[in-house]
Protein: Glycosyl hydrolase family protein
Amino acid sequence: MTELKSGFPKNFLWGGATAANQVEGAYDLDGKGLSTADMVKFVPKSERGNDFSLDVTKKEIDAILAGEVDARFPKRDGIDFYHHYKEDIALFAEMGFKTFRLSLNWARIFPNGDDTTPNEKGLAFYDSVFDELLKYGIEPLVTLSHYETPLNLTLKYNGWADRRVIGFFTHYAETVFKRYQNKVKYWLTFNEINVISLSPYTGGGVLVENAENPLQLSYQAAHHQFLASALATKLCHEIIPNSQVGCMLARMATYPATNNPDDVLKAQHENQMNLFFTDVHARGTYPTFMNRFFAENNIVIKKETGDDEILKEHTVDFISFSYYMSLSATVKPEGDRTAGNFMGGVKNEYLETSDWGWQIDPKGLRFTLNDLYTRYNLPLFIVENGLGAYDTVEDDGSIHDDYRIDYLRKHIEQMKEAIKDGVDLMGYTSWGPIDLISASTSEMSKRYGFIYVDQDDEGNGTLKRSKKDSFNWYKKVIASNGEDLA
Ligand code: BG6
Structure:
């Protein structure tokens, strides 16, 4: 009889994930250049209407640079990880992290993006962070680009819309692969690469407001990122022979809202539009279903000779993805809508929602793992998952976040089921193990952490770190390799 895999593999990589622009702060220290994330201002919830967009326009950037905008820019300050990393990493080590996912801030290393020589102080900062992690036996998992592009590349080239940016990126990638070759083995190229199609400014520093066909720009930029990702994968394999490179998708598993075949087709279409990004990375070719989408939206991807070969020859070693929720699709325009991570959907009556209206669907994670593994037959890595919630600090300083424990427990249970189903899962890094600035709303009060950070939405607070109840819970989960979830 075939034996069922039960439990997590021995070397399972448990940990947490962050992004430079949401934690580091120090946005103008030690030679760092401005990045697109530094231009994102805080808009209080009461002022965020239905048309609230993450995309910053050229006009807004000009006004910000001219000092005409009186606002807070929380991603410039983060949680000051730049000066607290030793303390924060010590807490990760106390929880027993096997890995820590972080991103490099490109503009800290190449302040203008198109510089020929790197900023030594920027490189030295990450050396210190990696040394600190390795001191505790924590494996760094590094994202090259997580929602920040050096601002100069946006202003001068319109970000990833311009093919020349591929060369600047590969120069950056080569620089960091060489520099950290003895410290970092696991790499990711672009965080949630599909976001370039949903928020081109966030995903690729692309300004689309004056474009005749914004989709043309977004998908052309995606093509450039695919090439850059493939070339970085090639370089990484050459420079660090034992390295593993993954792509990263915001997986938005979409169910048909009913069994009406039209809803089923709509859901299939949504899933194809999402999985297109992993298809290119894993299979090395554009899937044929995109031809119709491109034709119907007047999109013509400009390719150069050799592009197809680059994509084909340098596919990824593993697939990583974020999973927060599932979505539902219907052709009927009516019905309650739900919020989501860059994309909402229609309400699923079987699911509860978070404080921010995101649908909580642990079984959707099992579905997603099976689905991705069947499609690609490559190892999978969940590099983001978690619950953004309001936390209350009690008078004695304790924080009882049982709702977070509940969310994580249910998702980890489903990971176990997926492993039994036969899925090859390398690791799990929950999002925001320490509270950080929200990517979508720049709020501090949307907290994901096991570690609380004393800072409010207005930037007031001591930045003191303290442990929530989930801290000891996750420590136990890791120590038992996922067996003790109580
Ligand atoms: C993912 C991003 O989309 O979701 C993270 O990769 C982000 O950067 C996370 O923080 C959670 O989203 P939010 O908007 O709650 O911060």
